[in-house]
Specification:
Layout lengths: L11 H9 L7 H9 L6 E2 L5 E2 L2 H17 L3 H8 L20 H8 L3 H9 L5 E2 L2 E2 L2 H13 L9 H22 L4 H32 L24
Helix pairs in contact: 3-4, 8-9
Amino acid sequence: MSAQPARAYLGIGEVLVRLQDEFPDVSLSKIRFLESEGLIEPARSPSGYRRFDEADVERLRYILTAQRDQYLPLRVIKERLLPSMPEMDGEAGGHAAGPMTRRQLLAAAEIDDGQLAELETFGLIRRLGRVYGPDALQVACAAAALGRFGVQPRHLRAVKAAVEREMSFIEQVVAPTLRQRNPEAREQAGRTAREIAELTMRLHGALIEAALAEAGFPGDCLGPPGAGYGNPAGGASA
């Protein structure tokens, strides 16, 4: 007897199993909610059952990653998915977005003018001329998510101060290379600075995880930088 050909589609339960290891909070109701919001459009069988292909699964993976790691509201994710799904590469960390006006930033981050003004007051977001740089949206969304736990922008000054100390450390490391004063040296210094920054973020995550364990807080590992904060942006966590 010849083997049956592999199906070209998956049922919703099979999609859930495929994604749960990477996204433990995902559920059938979450997938249905994303469909109701127009972020995914699985095909339907004649009897009405959802049929997901590999492109649908990758689209779901992109949406869930953008929510978890970038704190993006569903409206922003939907805009980025049109007309086609962006690649989940090195630009997925929030640097793919271009400069934004104040109104665009407020709408994308789903915050009000007072919240943005407070973030600017404490130096967490800086305007570049009349627009905001690509990192402003990520900062605004993260701050808004933390605000749901009662964390205010003034409480984040310690985070900003820690970043400034780490940046000072990185500058000291690459300073000898920069003293060579040639384009090749500057490019090498840039690559070294980013590599050191990535390693310090990994170290920071490991130390935070160790501190949480020592304090007796149960839970899974935080994972990569930016992960492990549940579903703070847009939509239900059903």
